[in-house]
Amino acid sequence: METIEILKLTSDTLFKAFMLSKHTNRLKARMIHLVTGIDEELLLHAEYQSTELPVKHKKDKVYRTDIVVKVDKHLLNIEMNADYYPEYKVKNSRYMNVIASESFETGEKYDNRFVIQINIDDFDAYGLDELIYEFRFMEVKHRIVEEETYVSYHINLSKIEDLCYTSDERSELVNILKIFKATNEEELDNLRGEVYMDEAIDEIRRICRDKNIIGLYDAEKVANKVMNNRIDYAKQQGYEEGEEAGIQKNKQEMIIQMRKEGLKEETIMRIANVTQAELKEFK
């Protein structure tokens, strides 16, 4: 078997390619079932999408989700959060709000749609040595749950090597999550055994040989490096906008560089997370 470079699934490009592939359906179904309890058989036939959420007004910000899953009466949003920044929880909460409101506006009954978000965090956001954090609307003092159909999970990837688990299901989930952290073929091959794991690992190898995906991955790395530099610069200069100023400067720099590289407009829009109208404004 040929030796290839394994690209981490915490990358936006690789994560979406992996999650949208039909060859990983068994693993995704098992993982989501272990986190949420949703019937695994239903998840096997679920529809996975990477989508642009609708906006009500032209000036509203456009949100592009990582993955949206439609299954039975459930609507799931799965987000890979590779880097910590203060606003990431706010951004993902807005995703949930838009997804929920769109569902209700298109004729769904309010008691007939479960909106669930699964955040896969490559960092410890809460510092409590837990693998999974579950959030619901509840009364603070008596912990009375107000809303059952609106749930957010945060999976802590940084703890999968450190914590000990006695539950067979929890250990199985940890094994699945290790796929997202693997950086070489040996680490992946050590996870083989279950059919769904073998299928997923074979698909990772295929994705990591795809020249188009490798190109997007490389462009993403450059974009992230530029963005981090711009954010740091914005903070050092004392901008009131802080990170937002850095992000906007990053987009300008990123788009200029990608145009020099001859990337297509659709590819630039995806990597820079801008609409066609915004892309024209940058010109």
Describe the structure.
The chain folds into 2 domains: 12-184; 212-282, no CATH class. The longest helix is centred in the last third of the chain and has 26 residues, at 211-236. With 283 residues, the chain is α/β, with parallel strands linked by helices. Helices cover 48% and strands 15% of the residues.
TL;DR?
48% of the residues lie in helices and 15% in strands. The protein is α/β, with parallel strands linked by helices and 283 residues long. A six-stranded mixed β-sheet has the order 1-2-3-4-6-5, with helices on both faces.
What pattern of helices and strands is seen along the backbone?
Answer: HHHEEEHEEEHHHHHHH
The stretches of 5 or more residues where confidence is low (pLDDT under 50) are 53-63
With helices defined by DSSP (H or I, 4 residues minimum), what is the helix count?
11
Cα-to-Cα separation, first versus last residue: 46 Å
The Rg value, from CA coordinates, equals 20 Å
What composes the largest sheet? 6 strands, mixed
Overall pLDDT score:
79
**Overall SS class:** alpha/beta
Question: How many β-strand runs?
Answer: 6
How are the strands of the biggest sheet laid out side by side? Answer: 1-2-3-4-6-5
* Gross morphology: globular
Helix content: 40-55%
What is the beta-strand fraction? Answer: 15-25%
Tell me the count of domains: 2
Blueprint (SSEs and pairs):
Blueprint: H1 12-20, H2 25-36, H3 40-44, E1 47-49, E2 67-71, E3 74-81, H4 88-105, E4 114-121, E5 132-138, E6 145-156, H5 168-181, H6 185-189, H7 195-207, H8 211-236, H9 243-260, H10 265-272, H11 276-282
Parallel strand pairs: 3-4, 4-6
Antiparallel strand pairs: 1-2, 2-3, 5-6
